[in-house]
Amino acid sequence: MTAARKPAIIMGMEHPKIIIKYNRFLDPIFIGYIQAQPQWKDWTPPQKETVFQNIEMYRTEWKKYEQKIIVGMYQCTGLQFQQNIVDVHIVSGNPRPFSNPIVLKSTYSLDVFIDTLTHELIHRLFSNNDSVFPVKFLGDQFPNEEKLTKSHIFLFAVLQYIYLEVLKDPKRLAESQQRSATSKHHEYARAWEIVIKEGYQKLIGSMREEIKNAHS
Fold it and tell me: Crossing angle for the helix pair 147-161 and 200-215, nearest 10 degrees?
């Protein structure tokens, strides 16, 4: 059995090694799935050379932000990852990114790739700490909201913290909100509405308090 890779240390805190790589096993599955859907019948996967070139650019770009973003996630939430490695699987196309495992398409612009990976890493951070993550609090506070909306309220609050207080980039925030507003999944736009109404700092404070209570 291969020994587990030791997590990296950033500013005194451990964090997992983020491995961005092409997944040759998943890729044909996603290509086949997309091409089987009537609405995407004309979709053509990018050339493999383009996929590999984009992956190299994604790795380089992520390294510029990795320390700030992960430290910001830790400081904001009070949580840490409970795994040494997080694989980020890149495939030619993916109708919707997801976090377990993290599977992202190969055709994002660099900015959108960073934003999307950050989004999915926050999901993973929460799921790594599901024993203390305040799911019940969300249900109690927002009983009439749909599940997908509730699962993104704290996530978007953390994203807003990272955009404004860590990266100091309000343009990223506006662009992320605009992508949610135009998504076919209206729950994303609704989650942002709640974050804007409640205030991201207030929501983060509530989240941290609930996590603290779960630990006590």
Answer: 110
